[in-house]
Specification:
The complex is a heterodimer of chains A (about 500) and B (about 350). By secondary structure, chain A is an alpha/beta fold. Chain A has helices spanning about 45-50, 75-80, 100-105, 120-130, 145-160, 175-190, 205-210, 235-240, 300-310, 330-335, 345-350, 360-365, 380-390, 410-420, 440-455, 465-470, 495-500; strands at about 5-15, 20-30, 35-40, 60-65, 70, 85, 165-170, 195-200, 215-220, 220-225, 260-270, 275-285, 290-295, 315-320, 325, 340-345, 370, 375, 425-430, 455-460, 475-480, 480-490. Chain B is an all-alpha fold and about 350 residues long. Chain B has helices spanning about 15-25, 30-45, 50-75, 85-100, 105-130, 135-155, 165-175, 185-200, 205-215, 215-220, 225-250, 260-270, 285-305, 310-335, and strands at about 160, 255. A two-stranded antiparallel ribbon of chain B has the order 1-2. The longest helix of chain B has 27 residues, at about 225-250. The interface of A and B includes residues 14, 353, 354, 355 and 404 of A.
Chain lengths: ~500, ~350
């Protein structure tokens, strides 16, 4: 009788031109919390899809064993039945149904009769949530739940199948600090009830806090496994990245110059709620080669500030001055004409042309650059792409690679290349390192520094305070759509900035 | 089944790759089904390769083909135009009535006819772009309007062109057959080449792809997506006008039933030829191949003496297959983003 509840042996999976998993072997002990860490592009998602049946048997080489017996999954339902529960990264709930319905939607076929009795589902829900000690109320409309609660709902849904193994894929990416604390409590509770948890993340601090063992993936290989007692942050980072990162946040030595942007009394109305403003009376200035950080809680108006400067939201009032001259920015085209460029939070939805390749994406915002007379020059486009791919270290077979096949970090670098190619004076960055591996984050910080050296001024929004504190020269704190304070780097600490956010 | 070829980046043979690179054509893969279809056609009826038959294929193809070019552009930007067939009918009727009943000089009638379709398409385009009405709904409405107007103007009877002054010139022109192939065929191929170049080699073409792929991204890159979406409607309107004039010059009669089904054929051809029905990918060469395949299929059915109604059934089945192909293709690129 083996002590391993799950083993994957010699898993190899290829996509066109890319070996995503290379002879990966992992063993999971019953009742442990196993951490799986690696950069985006390391193969974590692919491995998970192999384990939870989304890549069915036959699409990869290697074996999966549960309690010593080999299993073949033809769909994710097979895996579910065999005891592997999966909670995906993106919040995925049915907004218009209630909590109980969301939990049991997959089980409705078990009902022998033809009709579903509303009351029965709710009763089942109450019993279930009580048994699992999950803090949700069955009648609550899911649309109204916070993100943390929605995720809890997804976990409850997975647990309704009574899985022996629960896989959580990057569960904390959308959660607040409180929600994360709550989540960890639940995970520990699961462990105390004998369930096994596989916890996938790219955040080192989470591995250190909650896992019993960690497996590190890099470039499709299982690089190393450590027990909790052996945990060493630097060693793990080196394993993840393949090189020693001496300084996560590189220093910058740039002479900040005169004012390049000034915003006066910017007010933007709420598009749906009358007499409410998204942001009110926002005034600040940005100096040339400066990196200005916008700090605040979710909903404080940071993204709205960037978007309205860029002309996406119509202004109710306010003036924008660029290099001293007032400009009228009514839409995105005006913004770009005036030297502004916006890198949005969600690269898949708003950052990249997902049906196109790297070079077509990079050239998009400045096609004049690659013209040869009246026509586009493919040669110039190729050279342009090569230039940015080497400057930003974008890892791909060549510039014809479809961006959909790139890892998150490389995709973000393509988005930044596209912005750089437009020769902006002012770059607005909204969460530039969200969902990106450690190695790429470090590269992007270096790129930000290089850009300021090139004369570009940056306004940056980020939810990761350490990142903001390290990269910005000055901070503006927002709460409820208004500016409450402005702080110089020398006077800023994590605590005093956080306190101001709650003002 | 794990194909060991997956490990290699270079999976296609060198010859195909050279052709692909030279013409920047992704559709080389679709040429194989076309060749298969031709072989089937020849087996079923050796008359297929008869020059007269090929001329008929060329002639038929080039008329609804003009319309398909416009439809392809509209689909590339993420919209649909279901009214193109009805617009052809209305335009033919309008032209015939203008030249005969209203006694307008031929040239004026031609100009007005083209202006008419351009105006109608512009109206559709403005409703879609400015009022943000779904393009399916808008153009279905336009379809009903055009159908109604053509029936009204003709009292549901065909209108002969002959009485119009200058009509013999037009008809003579229409019957010209340089190299045994109708001149419209060369005209059509010329337009395909021009639009292929526009799509692949100009800034405007690139903007069309970007707008169809993701209009938010296009806007953030400074592209005036409203203008792009409207402009393809206008171009389509112009092409529809041309197609109508060409059709009249060949048939000598205007009938309110012309163009029936052309929009569906156009959409099917576009989908078969590799333009994704959700916008953002494909090319004119693909449209050409799709048109070619549809026409060959129709021709096969005619040679087999299958009646018109069965042909509709075949069209329906082909559309389903084309849509499945399209979805598969998109999934492959986007990697199963569900």
């Amino acid at each position: 009788m083996t002590q391993y509840i799950l083993e994957v042996q010699n898993i190899t999976k290829d996509f066109v031109g890319v070996r995503a998993l290379n002879n990966v072997c992992i063993s999971v002990k019953k009742g442990e919390i196993l951490g799986l860490i690696g950069e985006n592009g390391a193969g974590k998602s692919t491995l998970l899809k192999v384990i939870n049946g989304m890549y069915p048997s036959g699409t990869f080489e290697g074996k999966i064993l549960i309690n010593g017996e080999q299993v073949h999954f033809h769909s994710s339902h097979d895996a579910l039945i065999k005891g592997i529960g999966f909670v995906p990264q993106e919040i995925n709930v049915m907004e218009d149904l209630n909590v109980a319905e969301n939990i049991f939607v997959g089980h409705l076929a078990e009902n022998k009769g033809l009709l579903i009795k509303q009351g029965e589902i709710e009763k089942k829900g109450i019993d279930f949530l009580k048994k699992e000690n999950i803090d949700l109320s069955v009648r609550e409309k899911v649309r109204m739940l916070s993100i943390g609660k929605k995720q809890l709902l997804m976990i409850a849904r997975a647990l309704s199948w009574n899985p022996e193994i629960l896989i959580l894929d990057e569960p904390t990416s959308a959660l607040s600090k409180d929600d994360v604390v709550n989540l960890f409590k639940i995970i520990r509770e699961l462990k105390s009830r004998g369930r096994t948890v596989i916890f996938v993340t790219h955040k080192l601090e989470e591995i250190m806090e909650i896992t019993d063992r960690v497996v590190i993936l890099r470039d499709g290989l299982n690089i190393a496994t450590y027990k909790y007692a052996e945990y060493n942050e630097n060693k793990i980072v080196t394993d993840m990245v393949g090189r020693t990162i001496i300084n996560m946040y590189p220093s910058r030595n740039v002479q900040i110059c005169e004012e390049v942007l000034r915003i006066e009394n910017l007010t933007v109305e709420h598009p749906k709620i009358k007499n409410r403003n998204l942001i009110e009376n926002i005034s600040f200035s940005l100096k040339k080669k400066e990196v200005l950080g916008l700090v605040g809680l979710v909903g404080s108006g940071r993204t709205e500030t960037l978007s309205s400067i860029f002309g996406i939201y119509p202004k109710k009032s306010g003036k924008i001055f660029i290099e001293g001259k007032e400009v009228n920015i009514r839409n995105e085209r005006d913004a770009i004409k005036n030297g502004l460029c916006l890198v949005t939070e969600d690269r898949k939805a708003n950052g990249l042309l997902m049906l196109a390749n790297i070079k077509n994406n990079i050239s998009l915002a400045n096609l004049k650059n690659i013209l040869n007379g009246l026509f586009l020059s493919y040669k110039k486009e190729n050279n342009l792409a090569k230039k940015y791919m080497s400057m930003l270290n974008i890892k791909a077979p060549n510039s014809d690679t479809m961006v959909a096949n790139l890892s998150g970090g490389n995709q973000q670098k393509v988005v930044i290349s596209k912005a750089l190619n437009a020769n902006p004076k002012i770059l607005l960055l909204d969460e530039p390192t969200k969902g990106i591996d450690v190695g790429s984050k470090n590269e992007i910080y270096n790129i930000i520094n290089t850009m300021t050296g090139m004369g570009i001024s940056i306004i940056m929004v980020s939810s990761e305070l350490p990142e903001l504190l390290a990269m910005c020269d000055r901070f503006i704190v927002l709460t409820h759509g208004r500016i409450v304070d402005e702080v110089e780097k020398s006077k800023a600490t994590q605590e005093n900035i956080m306190n101001k956010c709650f003002a | 089944m794990l194909d060991s070829k997956l490990k290699n980046v270079k999976t296609e043979n060198a010859g195909l790759r050279i052709i692909k690179k030279a013409f920047n054509i992704q559709e080389v893969n679709i040429i194989i089904p076309v060749i298969v279809l031709i072989v089937i056609a020849v087996i079923l009826n050796p008359m297929f390769l008869n020059l007269d038959n090929l001329a008929v294929i060329g002639k038929r193809m080039s008329m609804w083909g003009l319309v398909a070019i416009g439809e392809g552009l509209i689909i590339l930007t993420g919209n649909f135009d279901i009214s193109v067939g009805a617009m052809v009918a209305f335009d033919c009727v309008f032209f015939a009535v203008a030249a005969t009943t209203w006694h307008l000089p031929l040239v004026i009638a031609i100009v007005l006819a083209i202006l008419l379709t351009v105006t109608l398409s512009t109206i559709s385009g403005l409703l879609v772009v400015k009022l943000k009405i779904n393009s399916f709904l808008t153009t279905i409405a336009m379809l009903f309007i055009c159908k109604g107007l053509s029936k009204t103007m003709t009292n549901a009877r065909p209108v002969l062109i002959a009485p119009a002054q200058g009509s013999d010139l037009l008809l003579h022109f229409g019957q010209q057959e340089p190299l045994k192939m109708s001149w419209t065929f060369f005209f059509f191929i010329g337009l395909i080449i021009i639009f292929q170049i526009i799509l692949k080699k100009t800034v405007y073409g690139r903007y069309i792809y970007a707008t169809g792929d993701n209009s938010n991204v296009a806007k953030l890159a400074g592209i005036n997506t409203d203008f792009i979406k409207l402009s393809v409607f206008i171009i389509s309107g112009f092409l529809i006008g041309l197609a109508s004039i060409v059709l009249i010059s060949k048939e000598a009669v205007a009938n309110a039933n012309y163009g029936t089904g052309w929009e569906l054929q156009a959409i099917a051809a576009v989908a078969i030829g590799g333009i994704s029905l959700a916008g953002g990918a494909g090319s004119m060469i693909g449209v050409l191949i799709g048109i070619f395949m549809m026409q060959i299929m129709t021709n096969i059915l005619i040679l087999l003496q299958i009646n018109l109604n069965m042909q509709s059934v075949v069209l329906g089945v082909v559309m389903i297959l084309a849509t499945i192909l399209d979805v598969r293709r998109r999934r492959k690129i986007l990697g199963n983003i569900d």
